[in-house]
Amino acid sequence: MQTMVFIGNKALLDLPMWGFLTARSVLRGEMFRRYDWATDRAGSGGSVIGGFCSPRECDVVYLLLKGKTNIVVVLVRRMYSQLPEEWEKAVNDHRMRIISISYCQRQSRRTALLRNYYVANVCDRLYLAGATNDSSLVEIAKSYLAKCAIGSFLWSRVFQ
Asked: Which residue range(s) make up the domain with 37?
């Protein structure tokens, strides 16, 4: 049996949220679009939920923290023993919630997929960065669209 572990402002889960998911490998142009999206979100406030585990995803969190955006981080590994300094400040300012949904030491493909479905199920809008036709993010997008009568959905790449 797995138990979720939480840190931060629970009320953030009740707010409308953008979901942010990204493919494992992303082209340079995609990377810049992702940063532009994060900069737009940072200026507009609101909330964003995602895994934010790769270095480039952590860059997105850093951009979001520079603005007014609330952030929900979903970990698929054990909770941090010590939070990064910027994250700790955001938790103390009630702008961040961190959820650990696994006791695993490290993230795996399977746990990342579970996290991505969780993000897609709780968000109101979904942004997928760098997904290709053979990406697991395509199935997550279909799942997201199935739950929404009319969803706000952005691809950072046109599928062929």
From this structure: 5-155
